[in-house]
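Need residues for this backbone.
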């Protein structure tokens, strides 16, 4: 049995990665399992622990780092986020494809560990459009808006390093392009 293939979905915060991710995970052709990250960020009302994230304390997160259980981790907007390695190893060794969603800095360490992984960067239509989306989403927290926009600017500077860049202007087209590239890669490995 061949190992599963990893799809990395990256892009600035609030760029609409969530909608693209859901569409990809719900596509039966892609047979994707979601890599659930650990985070110290507080749980939002619409989120489920163990489905959207593993919501952990700082101590628990530090313990995962100490035990080398994270493939990569980063600090974002005052909280830690990390990709647990054991669950990814378990899934790909069983031949399952895995979708990992990370901010742009997380991509390099994942590619170093799993060179075969196919990475996509989701670009906003324009920075102004992203500003509007971030402001709507985090309307009560001006400091968070600014931190997310600064980070988005940095992420967008890294974007040219990605081989596959898709625009969020048309979610359906972005999903179709990601699917085309990923399925082609799966086919090539046969
Ligand atoms: P949010 O707080 O909006 O859920 O996530 C903030 C950012 O962290 C998003 O860009 C998301 O893709 C990214 N992120 C989520 N999990 C991880 C992870 O495990 N590692 C890294 N590097 N980024 C992550």
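Answer:
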């Amino acid at each position: 049995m061949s190992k599963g293939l990893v799809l990395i979905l990256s892009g600035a915060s609030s760029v609409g990665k969530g909608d693209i991710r859901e569409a990809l995970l719900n596509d039966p052709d892609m047979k994707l399992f979601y890599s659930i990250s650990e985070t110290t960020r507080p749980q939002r009302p619409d989120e489920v622990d163990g489905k959207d994230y593993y919501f952990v304390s700082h101590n628990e997160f530090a313990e995962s780092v100490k035990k080398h259980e994270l493939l990569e981790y980063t600090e974002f907007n005052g909280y830690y986020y990390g990709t647990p390695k054991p669950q990814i190893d378990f899934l790909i060794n069983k031949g399952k494809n895995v979708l990992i969603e990370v901010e742009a800095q997380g991509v390099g360490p994942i590619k170093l560990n799993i060179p075969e992984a196919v990475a996509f960067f989701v670009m906003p239509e324009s920075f102004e459009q992203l500003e509007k989306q971030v402001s709507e989403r985090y309307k009560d927290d001006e400091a968070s808006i600014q931190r997310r926009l600064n980070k988005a600017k940095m992420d967008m500077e890294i974007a040219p390093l990605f081989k596959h860049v898709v625009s969020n202007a048309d979610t359906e087209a972005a999903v179709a392009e990601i699917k085309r590239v990923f399925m082609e890669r799966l086919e090539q490995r046969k």
